[in-house]
Amino acid sequence: MEYIELFFKSIFIDNMVFATFLGMCSYLAVSKKVSTAVGLGAAVIFVLTVTVPLNWLLDQYILQEGALSWLGDEYASYDLSFLSFIMFIATIATMVQLVEIVVEKFSPSLYNSLGIFLPLIAVNCAILGGSLFMQSREIPTLGLSAIYGFGSGIGWFLAILAIAAIREKIRYSSVPAPLRGLGITFIITGLMAIGFMSFGGMLTGGDEGDKKEEKTAKVEKVVNQEKTLVANSKKEK
Amino acid sequence: MGLLSKKDASLLSDPLADNNPITIQVLGICSALAITAELKASIVMSISVLFVLGVGNVVISLMRNIIPSKIRIIVQLVVVAALVIIVDLVLKAFAYELSKTLSVFVGLIITNCIIMGRFEAFALGNGPWRSFLDGIGNAAGYGVILIIVGFFRELLGSGTLLGFKVLGDPIEKTGLYAIGYENNGFMLLSPMALIVVGLIIWVQRSKNKALIED
Lengths: 237, 214
What we know:
The structure holds 2 protein chains of 2 kinds.
Chain A: H1 2-13, H2 16-20, H3 24-29, H4 34-63, H5 84-106, H6 108-114, H7 118-122, H8 125-136, H9 142-170, H10 182-197, H11 206-236
Helix pairs in contact in A: 1-9, 4-5, 4-8, 4-9, 5-6, 5-8, 8-9
Chain B: H1 6-13, H2 39-63, H3 72-94, H4 96-102, H5 104-107, H6 113-121, H7 128-158, H8 191-207
Helix pairs in contact in B: 1-7, 2-3, 2-6, 2-7, 3-4, 7-8
């Protein structure tokens, strides 16, 4: 049940494009034709499904505070989380290269349809964003992180497919000249995002409130800790 | 300006209007829109990008002759990631609350297409000084749009600017609220950022007909 909930949540409620505006660059640049949009969307689903669990493992066993304790007790106090940006982006860049090589070797036809988009993906914000949200939302298990990556990918795919279809049709309507092209695409995306907001009530609304309270409680705890630290250091002086 | 030749000055001024990274080149929208609900966050975001792009452009331009072209993307990503980590740590140290609001979007400066785009298109082929000017110019062009969007969203959405209640107090009904003005809460929701940018593009292109697409 948890899996299904996270899956639908990442597709509709936390949709990459409409809720967090991730991957907007390629979303706007590659959505002129449906066929290319499908190619890029498929590549994004694939890369997200692979990189989010990989980065989850990295985060869990290397980067988090105390994550190195499996090496021995003396490593238990290490906190490498400040390195997470560089580790995540390196994982993504190497994964993308690897995927490109493997696909080229074993399936030239897939490579021809997908290949040109793969280098673009390394710098697609949706991919890094997926990993960063995975980290900041503290997704608990490997399976859930894979589902999260897959669901987010599908959400992105749906979004780019929809806008590409709309852009193919809108060419025949009389849009005011200065709005043609980019301007109208922005406004349509805004309207679609408003539409997607209505999915917000799809899952049990009660959870959200509790989670927020937990979060603020956490922040308060941290702030209090800092205050006591400051107070202690002042006393010492 | 005596310090800059005419060509160098155009590197700074072009991206502000006619070659704006957001409204014309369509780059860097990813991390831009979600954080513009208040002016302060937009300003901090613009300054961060200004730092990363200015310094990053110089670094890449200094290294441009020794980077093998096959692995240049990874080299670029590492340079940006290192700079972004600096920004992130500075924000966490001096503006903790704000870094919570920006959350993952500071990290997403790494994949901001403006930065990679400028590295590829400019820093790899030009000297450090010109690359620096280009970086500053483009980051400023990005910042201008962010600040305009942030200004309107905060003013119309919560009636404040940088946290100051410029339109009066909505609870005590002073200022504009006394004559029945209401905040438009819709402006605070993220879809409105897209629509505001769309409107900016409309205004800009109706002033400069050369930019109109077919």
